[in-house]
Amino acid sequence: MDKETTPVERVIGLDAHPDSFTAAILRGPTPAAAIVEKTFNQLPLSRLWQWAKKHATSRDLIVLEASGNSFQIARKLAQLGRPARVLESCQVGKLKEAHANNDKISAVRIAKAYLAGTAKEVWVPDLKTQERRDWFHAHRKAVKRLVQARNSLLSYLSDNGVRLKKGTRLSQPQIGEEQLRQSREWSTRQWQLIQTLLTQLRHAEEQRAQWRSLIAQEVLADPELLALVRLCGVRDLIAFALGAFIGDIKRFASPKKLVKYLGLNPAFDDSGKGQWSGGVGGHGRKDLRSLMIQGAQAILRCSQNPLAKWGKKLLARKGQINLVVAAIARRLTVAVWYLMMGRWTPLEEVDARLEIKLNKILTAVGAKQIKASAKSRPQWRAQAHQQLKFAKTYILDPTKTFQPQPATATP
C-alpha cells in the first residue's frame, strides 16, 4: 500500500455509523509507538464536517473502514481539504479482539491497521462512477426479484399439476393470463392467488426493463462506454459494468493489474495437504468477473473471431472448457485495458455484426423511451455510428502481449 508522499503528522481513525461517529487521533510512525492523543466518542454524524475543520488539518490523514457511507464521507472530507482513505473491511475486521470491542477500540484499531500497512486501501470512486455502480446493483436486484417472482409462480403451477411450455411469456398481460385460464379449472381462491403472483411478476419485469433501458441509454450517450461495445463479447450491460467498476483506468498501471482486480489471474494455495490448488475465483470482483466470463463464452461460440479460433485450439489441447473460457476472459480484459487507455485506431465503418449489437441496444432502450426523447430510432442509430467512428476501437489479437512503455523524461 502506497503511503502519502508528504509527511503525515497524525493518523485519525474514524469509526462511522449511519447516525454517529467515533474518532481516535494517533501520533506516531508505527502501531507500537503510536500514542492516542484524544478520542471523540459517538458524536452525531451531522457534526462530522465541523469537527473535521476544528480538530483535523490538511497534514493529518483520516482513515475509515469500508462500509455503507464511507465513500460519501471520504469524498466530503476531501472537499474540505482533509485527506481521507478507506481501508478494506475484511482486513481491518481480522484485527478485532474477541473479548472486547466498542467504538473507541474500533477507531484506534482502524488507525493502527493503517500504520501497520497490512490493511488494503480501497479506491474511492468519483460521484459519477458511484452512481453507475448504484444503477448496476439496482438492475441486478431487479433481475433477482424477477427470477424469484417467476419461480414462485411456476412452483405454484407445478404444485397444481400445470407445466407450461418453455419460453412462455407469463409477464405479458393478455397472453400469460389467458394461457393460465385454459390450463385447468381453478377455484376462486386459486385464481386470486395466481393473479397476485402475476402482478408481482409484471411489476418485477417492468422494473428490470426500466433499469435495462436506463443502462442502454447511458451507454449510447457516453462515447467511452460505447467504444467498449466494439469488442466481440461485449454489449451494453458489460460495457456499463466495466465503466462502473473500473472507473479511472489510469489507476491500473498494466493489463495485469486489471486482470488481477477482476480475479481472472490464476491463483493457488498449496499450503498443507488437501488444499485448493489453483484456478480463478475466490478473489477480485465476482460481479464483473462473471460478466466477463459470459462475454468469453459468447466469443467461443463465434466462428470467425480470431480469439474464438485461438480458444478452440486451446480447448483441443487442454480439453477443459472452464480453463479455456477463463483464458479468453483474460485476453478480453487485456483488450479492455488497451482500449480504455486510448491505444486505438479510428473505426472506418460499422460492420454488420456491430450493427446487430446497436439494434439490440436500441431495443433495450424501448420504444416508449425513444419516442419520448423526440428522436427517431434511425437518429439514435446515426448518432451511435458517429460516436463509434470517432471513439476508440481495438482489434482483439490473441497473440498480442503487453509491452511496458519506456518512461519519458520530463523537462
Our measurement of the CA-to-CA distance between the termini, rounded to an integer number of angstroms, reads 29 Å
- SSE run: EEEHEHEHHEHHHHHHHHHHHH
Task: Classify the beta-strand content into a percent band.
Answer: 5-15%
Multimer state: single chain
Tertiary shape: globular
- Which class best fits the helix and strand makeup? alpha/beta
Rg calculated over all Cα atoms: 26 Å
Helix fraction, binned, reads: 40-55%
Number of helices: 16
Overall pLDDT level:
85
Residue stretches low in confidence (pLDDT < 50, at least 5 long) are 404-411
Major sheet characteristics: 6 strands, mixed
**Beta-strand segment tally:** 6
How are strands sequenced across the largest beta sheet? 3-2-1-4-5-6
Number of domains: 3
Folded structure, characterized:
This protein is of the alpha/beta class and 411 residues long. It has 3 domains: 11-122, ATPase, nucleotide binding domain (Nucleotidyltransferase, domain 5), CATH 3.30.420.40; 127-220; 222-390, no CATH class. It is built from 16 helices and 6 strands. It has a 6-stranded mixed beta sheet. Helix 7 crosses helix 9 (236-246), helix 7 packs across helix 14 (352-365) and helix 12 packs antiparallel against helix 13. The model is unreliable at 404-411 (pLDDT under 50).
Question: Which features does this protein show?
Answer:
16 helices, 411 residues, alpha/beta, 6 strands, Nucleotidyltransferase, domain 5, 3 domains
